[in-house]
Every structure is written in C-alpha cells, then in structure tokens.
Amino acid sequence: MWSFFSRDSTKDFPYEIGENVAGFEEKSIWTLKKGKRKGTVDEAVSIFAFEKNGTDTTNFELAKSSLKRIKTLRHPSILQFLDSFENDKVIYVATEYIEPLGYFLDKIPSDNKRDLYLAWGIFQITRALSFLNNDGNMRHNNVSIWSVFVNTSGEWKLGGLEYVQAIDQHNQTIIPIKTPLSLEIYDPPEKSDPSKLKNSTKWNCSTSSSSDMWRLGCLVWESFNGPLKMRNNLKDLENIPKSLAPLYCELVGANPSNRPNPADIITRCRKPNGFFKNELVDTLLFLEEIQIKDKAEKNKFFNALTPQLDNFPDNVCRYKILPQLITAFEYGDAGSIVLNPMFKLGRLLDEGEYQKKIVPCVVKLFSSTDRVTRSRLLQQLEMFIHHLTPAVINEQIFPQVAHGFLDTNATIREQTVKSIIHLAPKLNYNNLNVEVLRHFARLQSRDEQGGIRTNTTVCLGKIAQHLHPQVRQRVLVSAFIRAMRDPFPPSRVAGILALAATQQYFLLSEVANRILPALCPLTADPEKSVREPAFKTIRGFLGKLERVSEDPTLRESMEADVHTATPTIGNAAATWAGWAVSAVSAKFYRSQSDTRPRPPLTGKNLSKPASLEQPSSSSISTTTSSVTSMTSLEHESNDTSVSASDYGADNWDQENWGDMDTSQDPSSPMAAGPSTTLSTNLNINMNANSTVNDLHDGWDNDWGSLEEEPINEELEEKATNDTNHIAASRSNSNSQSQSHSSTGVCNNNTMNNSSLTKNNGDDTQINSSANSNSNWDNYGTAWNDDEFEPIEETVATSKFDEARRKREEKKLQRQRELEARRAARGPMKLGAKKL
Prior knowledge:
- The protein has 835 residues and is mainly alpha-helical.
- The protein has 34 helices and ten strands.
- Strands 1-2-3-5-4 form a five-stranded antiparallel β-sheet, covered by helices on one side. Strands 6-8-9 form a three-stranded antiparallel β-sheet.
- Strand 8 and strand 9 (156-158) form a beta hairpin.
- Helix 4 (112-135) packs antiparallel against helix 8.
- The protein is elongated.
- The chain starts with a helix and ends in a 10-residue tail after the last helix.
- The relative contact order is 0.06.
C-alpha cells in the first residue's frame, strides 16, 4: 500500500523525456528537452520542463500561468499543445516538435529562398500578435527569437506565454520584470519612462499593445541580422529589405503612439509590392483556405504551382505543402490537376515516407474512371515507377492499365502502349509475356490509327530485353515483318529499325531464311525514307553472314544473346547495329538509370516455364473485359498539325531512332481528310521535297505525331459493288446521301493511289509497294508464321499495273454514271414529296 503512494507519478506522463536542448535555459525559465511518445519510434515531440528549486515560487507561478495559457489559446501561429503533467515539484508541457528560432536562423541558406521564407515567418508572428492584441485583448510581453519556435514544416509558432497579460484599466501600462535578465533588452524604451505612454493614441490606450510592436520590430531585426546584443544595433538598417524598412522604423520608433496595429501591418504588407506579397505567402495562404475556393480558382492555382516549387524551401514543400496537396486530393475536389506538383514534391520524401503517403494515392488514382486522370498518370509514370514494388504493379496497377489497350479513345490507347516501357522491368511472366503481347498483337494488326500501330512496334523493340528468351525468339521476327508490311510508311520504318536494334536476338538461320527475304522488297518501296534504312539493315545482316561464312567460330558469339534473359550491352554494341542498341538503352532508359541502379548485365539462361505452353489459370485476362466507362478526355495537346522529320539520309549514325514523321498514309482512303495527332518515336523523312520541322530528340519526351484516319470498311465495300446495285440503293433520299459519301471516299482513294507512285524526286517510278500492303487487312491478331503471306513476289509488275489501271477506270466510270443520274433527277426542293 505504501509503495502505491511512494511511486514516481511522472510515469503517468505518456512521453519519454530525452536530452536537453543546450543553451535554451539561459533564455527562458523553461528547460527544453527532446522527447517522443511512449511506444512509438518516430513520433517526436518537444517537452518544456520546469523543476522547482527550494523557495523559487515566482518562476513556478509563471510556469503554471504559461501552462494555463498554452492550454486555452488555439491558433495556427501559436505553439501547439499536446499534453502536460504537473505536481508540486515539476511541470512538463509536451508540444509539437520544434526548434528555437535563435538556433534555426543559422540553418537558413543565404539565397533567394531566404527572403521568401522570412516573410512567411514574420507574417505568422504578426498574425499571432493580432490575434492576441485585437481578438484576445491580451499582451504577450515576451516576443523575441527565443520565444518563437519553428516546427518541422518550417512554420513559426509563438510561445513563451509566461508573461501574457489580460489588458484592463489597472495593468495596461505595467511591463513585467523578466527572468532571466538578458530578456530585458527586448523591453521598449517607455519602460524606463512611463510618461511617454501619455502620448499614446486611443487605440494604444485601449489595448496597450505598443510594447509588443516594439518587440516585433526587434524580431524583424534579428531575423535578418541574428541575435540582438545591444539596443543601439536596431539603428542598423543595412540588412533590412527596402520594402520593409519604413514599417520597421515605425515599429522601433521611440513614440509608442506611432507604432502600428498588427492588423494594419498585415493589410499594408499584403498589398502589391508589399513585404508579405510573394509566391510563398500566397501559396500557403491559399492552401489554408482551399476548402472555400471554387474549382476555377483551384485549377488556376495548381497550374501555376509546379514551377514555383523550385523557389520554396525544402522543409516547407515536404512537410507543409505536400500534406496539403494530398489532403486536397483525397478529401476535396482538386482532381487530377494536383498530380503534377504532388509527384514533383514526392522526390523530397525518403522511400518509407513515399510508400506511406504517395503510393496509396497512386493506386487509388489508377482505379479512377476519369480519362483525364488516367492520361496524366500515364504521362507521369516515369516520375514514380521506381517507387512501386513489383507486387503492387502486378496486382493493383497493371490490371487497371490494361483497360487502356481497349479504350475507345486513341490518346489513352497510345499512352498505355508507351507506359509498358516503364512497367516492363517489373511485370511478372504472365503479364508481360502473355497479356501485354496479346494486346500488342491486336493493336499492331487491327488498330485503325497508324501511329498506334507504329508505336506498338517501337515499344516491342524497347521491351525485347525483358521478354522471356523463348517468347522473344518466337514473337519478334513475326511482329517486325508484320510492321514492314503495314500500309502506313512510318510503321514500315519502325519494323526495319526494330529489327536492326534487336539483331542480337536472332539466329543466323532466321536472318538468312526470314529476315533478309522480308527486307528485300522494301528496297523498292515508294518512300525513300523506307528504302534507306532497308538498304542499311540488309548490308548489316549480310555482313554478319559473311563474317560467319569466313570464320564459322564466330557463330557462337553472335548468337550468344539469343537464349539469355539479360543480354550484354557490350556484345550488342560491338556489332554493326550498335547505334540502334545505344538508342534504346541510352535514350529512353536514361531517366530510369538516374533514379535507380541498373540491374547486373550478366546473361542467365532460363528454362522454358510451363506457363509458356499453358497460361496460368490465375492470369489476368484483360482482352475480354469490358472497357471501363470513362468521362470525356480533355484535349491536352494544342498542336495538332502534321509534324515533319529531321531524320535525313545522313542521320542514321546518330545514337537514336528519333521521332517519326506524321505524314498521312497515302494508301489510306481518307488520307486527304484531317487527322488528329498521335505521337511516335521514330524520325523519318516522309517526303524528301517537303519542308521539315525539328522535333525534340529522345524517346522519353516526345514521340512525335502519327495518326492514320480509320478506314470505313462499309464504304469500301459499297465502292466495290457493281453499278446496278448502286443505282438500286439510291431509291430514297437516305441512300442518296450514303452513295454521295461513298463516291467522295472513292475519289480520295483514287487520288491517294495515284500519289503513291511518286518517288521523291527520283528519275524512275517505283510501284512495288502493293506486294507489302495488299494483304495487310487479312492478317489476324497473332504473330504466327503461317498467317503471313510469302515474301517472294508472285505477281509480275506488269500484271499488277494492268489490274490497278482497270480498277481506276472502273471507279471513274461509276462516278460518271452517278453524276449523270443526279443531274437527270435535278435538285430536290425543301418540303417536296418524292414520287
């Protein structure tokens, strides 16, 4: 029983008390200690401790008064109270973790950020004094760099509340005596000459806050010069900003009646060109009031925030702005526009904090049905992909991303294809080698947009190193040959360059029997930009075969990477196609190598997994899933014009594939119509005589603009019907409009087919592209060898020209007949009933 009464009562205090903050006890009646909540590791707090010594009752009463004030005063700029313990010998006060401003000033770097930050800190203390003087009718009496504290988010908090007095008629002129005596340097001059108070204005008489304004002036001086040693030093204005100097002189003026009200200080300094009018103060005040802002104001704010973050202190960005952005996203209606600044600030977090704060938001965002949100996520995937674990990507991210392959919006499909390059290193076998390739096969063969088909080929070339060796050997050649038969010229170039960049993955027997026979017809392609890489690639492959023919021992080294999981870049770069390999490894993966270490490049042979023959029953099938219902996607690109190329004849030795030209496919029936802009990653010269525009270098920024208008299969089918069928179908007005549209498409197709025979300024006309284009629409969605037409040419050129001429004559004849029928009927009058 006696042990119960004799036990240490401080054990009930829920915080562990740590070491002292050295030197603070010389500036306060308190001893400042570091601490943390019991049972936690990282929940740090600060503890103000006062231990009663003998008969020291005066300071003990001051400490009790301070505890009472800090419990009852709640304001964003006043020190935050957490808990306390009090008995007849000791007082403990736990607050948020802070550091005295007198120590913190030495840590602020001397750059452009310093003035912005000091303006924010002085604003906060002025706001706290306005709350005390005007709203609370109290006087602080202890403002200095030793009563102002800075928390982890860089906010200045007013403490030192032991001398706070309520203002009334009896004590309005009383200035208390302080302990320690070193604090008396901050007392105003009227303390020694009370007669000066008689000249005070009515406002100063009613609140007696002029002494606090004097101390605020001392705080301003100390913020720019360091601790105040002598009162006469206040006359030195050298380091005081010019925009603040007039107000500072009023604060430290000898006449109390001339010192301004703290509320007036805020009003004056928040005006244009005022000391408190800067980007940091505006940003933080907006975030404090973001819940009452409308959506237009929020959009304007977040659009301007991202470039401003570079001018803000890191601790403010990390602990003040970023939590506000996350809160605005989770509980407000900020939307996807908050992603740019949030991901930019995420770089300041360590891995543990990023996993705790940012990753849950990312996972939540990927499940959004808003197209704008998905588009922004896919565009910024590179900024946070290295923070996502393979488990999170495969189980939570990829199933959502895969819906984008089936989206009806071409922009989402295109960005989904490009995102695979960042996801591929962390995807498991089934997601990468089964699901991704299934979608790629469908997009490359059936997507109506030529740019998406091209980008699919580009992406496949980039992720080749991550594919399983057996899947890679089975898929690559078939996929690239399919691309070389695409009617869209940039897609043919993509197939050629992909073959060159992945040449180390092909057996020499495949080179001789499949690749070279597929490349040879492209040497007679109507587009010079297709012929040139075809010639160069053929020379490279022939060179490999010649070297092996002369020295058969080289075969093993040249085929060393065919069956390895991670081929050696050195071996690939030493070959004739090293320029293409360098483009893949250095250009696109440059940003990734800067943010995380590269995996070891030693090759490792893999056995063929069972799932290669029989996919796992737990695999995620996204090809049959319905497309997620989404809202309309905002148009994010202002430039929809056709981009040209800087990929000339002399640029093939550069270490990049560049950006492909966006010329419309001449074989497309709607090539003459306008097309929306998609991006690609190849840089080719689509027309040697056309004017070219420079695009950004590198794959990881701009993929160019490549899009092919969809081909209307119904109109094509109608255009091939005989004349009698067309005449019968025009028996009513609806049939008339449909036939008129069909005729327009046929005319465009005729014009495009005739323009296809141009040879970019060459003397001879090359008309052999139909061999590679005629059977494109008959291909399926799989990359199997038996689905491709033979490489050898089976129809003579003369027969092809004759058939083509007959088709054009037949189209012209049908057009003349239709025009004659329309002329015979005459125009129909509005409201007339057709007999």
